[in-house]
Amino acid sequence: MAKVPVRKTILFSYGFTFGNIGAIIGQIWLPVLLLTLGSYYVLSPYYETMSRALAEDNAALMGQASVGMLFYLVASLILYAMIYVAVTRAALGLAPRKAFLNLSLGIAEWRMYGALLSFGLVMALLLLMISLGAGLIGGIVLGLFGVTAGSSAAAVSANPVVASVGGMISLIIVCATLYVFVRLYVLLAPVTVAEERISLGRGWQLTAHNFWRLFAVLLAVLGPVMLVIALCEVALLGSEAIIPNSAATAAQTAARMDAMRSQLPLLHVLSFVFSPLLFGLQLAASAFVYRTLVPPGGERPASEA
């Protein structure tokens, strides 16, 4: 099984992105603008509704807000699909579209939409299964140590064994989710574009024995930009912007959401400005990894799927 060259992948990702930043902006600025505007006009009422629901302890209102957000996320995937197709085609060396107003919605974009939606559903199902399994194991462990459903949180945390087991279960959930995410996500776009089919299994097969290499690549290409964005958010909202206070009361959380709502315009400008770098770096790295593992001419046609 071929190994992903970490250093070459990182160099290609940065070289492609900064060497073609004008072309990337030209290809994706319109869908990114629509995403930014849509996100603002959805998040603003969402934060307002959630803040009110938390203050009133209204579970029904929280549910309504969450359902509305879910519908927006599913709908917004089509704009992400346009971006993924445009940048991935360019990074793979395929003929890029020349239009400055790129809002194409052809079979390639719908196929990418299906791939992104499938990926999201698989990850949600996996997280649910892992959480249920971890909850079952945690319940058994708590029962063995005499901790019942009516026990207080203080009583649970006071037991070092129970607390340690809880921490280990949380770590397992995070690690398992991260492992599957990396294996499925990295080649999602190039497989969908180059092979003209939706196949999560193909990406999983190609990335076998390369998890740590892929993880290192993602960390190197996305880490610096994400760090800059996080620092900007901390400057605007404080440290809780990236490290939520788990001990916060409902009233404190509601107040925090009100504060975030007031800063939404700046946060969305920040997102818009950094989007070309984030999309360019990650999709260029994915394309290079794909070409390393599947040289030109080695693609499997959809008829073989």
Care to describe what's here?
It is globular and about 60 Å long. The chain contains eleven helices and no strands. It has one domain. The protein is 78% helix and 0% strand. Helix 3 (59-92) crosses helix 4 (107-144). Mean pLDDT is 83; it is low at 301-305. It is mainly alpha-helical and 305 residues long. It starts with 5 loop residues before the first helix and ends in a 12-residue tail after the last helix. The longest helix has 38 residues, at 107-144.
Kindly list the characteristics that best describe this protein.
disordered C terminus; mainly alpha; 305 residues
Whole-number radius of gyration?
22 Å
Helix-strand string: HHHHHHHHHHH
- Counting DSSP E segments of at least 2 residues, the number of strands comes to 0
What is the domain total for the residues? 1
Characterize the biggest β-sheet: none
Oligomer state equals: single chain
Which band does the percent of strand residues land in? under 5%
Average predicted confidence as pLDDT? 83
First-residue to last-residue Cα separation? 21 Å
The coarse overall form would be globular
Describe, in short, the structure shown.
The protein has 305 residues and is mainly alpha-helical.
Note the topology.
Elements: H1 6-19, H2 21-56, H3 59-92, H4 107-144, H5 153-158, H6 160-185, H7 188-194, H8 200-206, H9 211-237, H10 250-262, H11 264-293
Helix pairs in contact: 1-9, 1-11, 2-3, 2-10, 2-11, 3-4, 3-7, 3-11, 4-6, 4-7, 7-11, 9-11
